[in-house]
User: What shape does this take?
Amino acid sequence: MISACLTPAPLPVTYRLFPKETRTLSSSNPYRSRKPDGGVDTCGSLRMDDIGRRVTISGWVNRRRDHGGLLFLDLRDHYGITQCVVEPDSPAFAEADKCRSEWVVTVTGPVVARPAETMNPDLPTGEVEVRIEEFAVQSVAAELPLPVFTDIEYPEETRLKYRFLDLRREHLHRNITLRSKVISSIRRRMIEQGFTEFQTPILTASSPEGARDFLVPSRLHPGKFYALPQAPQQFKQLIMVAGFDRYFQIAPCFRDEDARADRSPGEFYQLDLEMSFVTQEDVFAAVEPVLHGTFAEFAEGRTVSPLPFPRIPYEESMLKYGSDKPDLRNPIVIADVSDVFARADVEFKAFKNSVVRAIPAPGAASQPRSFFDRLNDWARSEMGAKGLGYIVFEDEGGKLVGKGPIAKFIPEAALAALTKASGVKPGDALFFSADGKKDRAAALAGQARIRLGRELGLIDANRFEFCWIVDFPMYEWNEDEKKIDFSHNPFSMPNFDRAKFLALDNNDAATILNIKAFQYDIVCNGVELSSGAIRNHDPDVMLKAFEIAGYSRETTEEKFGGMLNAFRCGAPPHGGTAPGIDRIVMLIAGEENLREVILFPMNQKAEDLMMGAPSEVSPRQLRELHIRTVEPE
Assistant: This one.
């Protein structure tokens, strides 16, 4: 049975303070001695230059080894690991012999060189060790539910419940330290570009757009609620209206939405920024050096996209990559071959009257039949499609021929048209995604592109490939509610003549759905880092934009009256974006899950297993807030 480390059983340990002379040695600090340069000795600082010095260091016992009388203790703190050794005839041996893994101890003794055959080149302190002359126990650890000195994977529930132990492990500890360094780098680069850091409110008003709000009941105003900000969107725009320029902050954001690998439940942080009197290209020019410089600083041999980052229109991205967040490390480019399958001489009727996208698979002709069957099964079971048709291309006597289940239905001229459109060559395969609706055909093709890129080993993990996705549609059709909705950010400026926009007939869906907006996303390696826009600072255009999306003018005035009133007092053209800090660090750290770069994350159910949140509150607290809880049926 595993015992909790919060209630250790009594152990035969003698606690004692260091003698007065040791405190003098360490400038009155009994835990760490001072270096000649005024710094502090830690478990990661000792080198050959320190040989002969008598030092005091403290930390956790990372590992204990008994070698025929010689006792070795690997002592670990935030800065690293130092090997310490104590001999049986030392006065400190009896105390040191009692300690176990993860006890917190302090040792004092001279720094000596390790024997040549025991030096550890993989450890910064691997050439030296501390010969223990004095030893003190600061804290005792009982049996741990999560061993620290191991890379063994433990269930998520255990790791999150005992996160303070998980954070001691080298990999996770390094990730969290990296996070701090990345944020410092970003902040420094923003300030160097003339941005000023401001903090915006945490308690604000609920917004009808975006994800669900986290609501906070007001004690002073019964029946009314604050909301935690999903983002500082309105505030940062009001900062521009207030006459400030180039604002930024490392902003906490709160959204009551489900978790996934690249999205934390509950809260996240973003580099929130806004600029006045700018165009879309001005925003790009400000953001690109920050992201490029930060990624390059921590690249460790990986390459970063050169400046400027590519600009890819939304429609082009959906066609070529089947996604508005393409991984440009993947060389596969999707082609539209609907016209080929619409030809009268093509007898494959399953693709008639459909949008057909072709996904090249370089070198896949050599794959076994099971490879193609597995992709078909995936398309049916996970994507809800009827399957993925395919053709394998081979060279027979200098002639390119197609083979596979549907090849016999494709005449030679149509086959040539497919190869021209897709760029395939002998040894390649071509998969097909077909559907009556363009968005569904694009989605399947995009996922197939990702899967093929991974399975064929086409993605270079040593690259950071950035791009901007631009020219998003301002609106989209909501099939469930049979109405027009905002496609992206509702506060964006439409890329449309102002007079014509204000005069639009709200029933003219064909025109409305073709309106583009000054909206953009920054994407890296298939991960969307942020959305941004040139903002709609015109009150009349803003009211009209919301009216088209089904909001009455009264509703818009009620929900966004503060912003509209500010705009009526003179607002500069402005725009910005907000790259996600968690996702930036996740990419730099080479992780696939955000929990590996967050100090105290929640689980998939938005629960904090360590602190027991969410938790019930007392009836008194509910009465003070004028709230009754209603259990779900």
Residues 170-192 form the longest helix (23 residues). The first strand starts at residue 54 and ends at 67.
